[in-house]
Task: inverse folding
């Protein structure tokens, strides 16, 4: 068993040595969405920087293999041996299967990894259910659901009428996921209030996730109850869904989508992928020494916004889910600084006119320690929320 870091995972991330994944040569790889996005972006960047013939051959093979797998046609093995061999070698050459967990990965990324490298399966579970929820059978691979329900639990969908989710919806039942079984907790230690709020008297645990059963009886997560935000136009948007789609943009290393019930559209706060940001800056004639300089360039911020909006449209987001503004952070988010950083964003969002998008006014132009508020504001206005703080 080995451990890798997204920063040193690929050869492009290190110097004078192999990346973690090529050095370890795993047969099974488990990772969070940031890992898969990093792998995908590294492959795409290398392919697109090559000769036109190689680029067209790769994307043509991706299209052909996807259709072969969909219609059950032979020939996918030939494409693996001829076109995707070098891609597989970049991940060690021994991968048999990979598993995504910890958050939703975009459908585009799951399909890309599955076609170019090895099948990626999804799973679903919570600490409170001992990771039991759903798991995909590799022989029933799909990018439309999370898979079957383990035998140790049972699941039911409970109506959430505020957002229009009902167990009687057609063609597929929808609602909040409740789980019961031997693997589900009996209660929170020394926390009776939370136990009463989360568990029913007959043992059902309320996950807060909105799910759907497809025609095969497989579970699919479509929303998060706590992260559903009703915008000014009366429509609900799901923060985690938006983050999974926008994270696929090449310029994004990490992202937090922010929405407010007093605004019509969300915005995004991102940590940029430095190589992609520099390449984008060069393409539009913007010069800078590094992320600290580039992050605050208005012309480059507009270009980043357009790239994210394009990723949103390609990911099938509706008009109200397309972000209206973006803040480019020059600080990498860590467990040590993320609370202070987002407190600063929220403080500025309601007190300073610093970002002229949709009147969100979110994020200082210069995020150096001198300009960051050093404490939380005493009151956080109702309705303003982001998933990280």
Result:
């Amino acid at each position: 068993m080995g451990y890798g870091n997204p920063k040193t995972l690929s050869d492009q991330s290190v110097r004078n040595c192999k990346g973690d994944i090529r050095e370890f040569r795993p047969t099974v790889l488990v990772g969070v969405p940031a890992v898969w996005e990093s792998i995908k972006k590294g492959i795409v960047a290398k392919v697109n920087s090559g000769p036109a013939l190689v680029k067209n051959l790769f994307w043509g093979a991706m299209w052909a293999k996807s259709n072969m797998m969909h219609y059950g046609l032979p020939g996918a093995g030939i494409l693996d041996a001829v076109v995707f061999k070098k891609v597989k070698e970049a991940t060690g050459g021994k991968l048999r299967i990979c598993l995504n967990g910890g958050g939703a990965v975009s459908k585009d990324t799951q399909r890309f990894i599955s076609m170019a490298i090895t099948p990626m399966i999804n799973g679903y579970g919570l600490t409170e259910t001992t990771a039991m929820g759903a798991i995909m059978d590799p022989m029933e691979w799909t990018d439309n659901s999370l898979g079957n329900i383990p035998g140790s639990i049972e699941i039911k969908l409970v109506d959430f009428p505020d957002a229009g989710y009902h167990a009687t919806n057609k063609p597929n039942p929808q609602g909040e996921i409740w789980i019961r079984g031997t693997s589900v907790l009996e209660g929170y230690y020394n926390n009776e209030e939370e136990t009463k709020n989360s568990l029913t008297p007959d043992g059902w645990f309320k996950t807060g996730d909105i799910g759907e059963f497809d025609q095969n009886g497989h579970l699919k997560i479509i929303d998060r109850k706590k992260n559903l935000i009703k915008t000014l136009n009366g429509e609900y948007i799901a923060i985690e869904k938006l983050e999974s789609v926008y994270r696929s943009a090449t310029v994004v290393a990490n992202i937090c989508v922010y929405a407010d019930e007093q605004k019509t559209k969300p915005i995004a706060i991102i940590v940029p992928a430095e190589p992609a940001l520099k390449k984008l800056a060069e393409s539009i004639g913007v010069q800078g020494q590094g992320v600290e300089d580039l992050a605050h360039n208005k012309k480059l911020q507009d270009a980043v916004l357009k790239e994210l909006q394009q990723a949103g449209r390609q990911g099938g987001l509706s008009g109200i889910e397309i972000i209206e503004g973006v803040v480019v952070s020059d600080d990498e988010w860590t467990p040590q600084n993320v609370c202070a950083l987002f407190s600063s964003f929220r403080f500025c969002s309601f007190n300073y006119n610093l970002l002229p998008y949709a009147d969100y006014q979110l994020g200082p132009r210069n995020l150096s320690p001198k300009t960051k508020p050093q404490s939380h504001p005493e009151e956080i206005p109702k309705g303003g929320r982001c998933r990280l703080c």
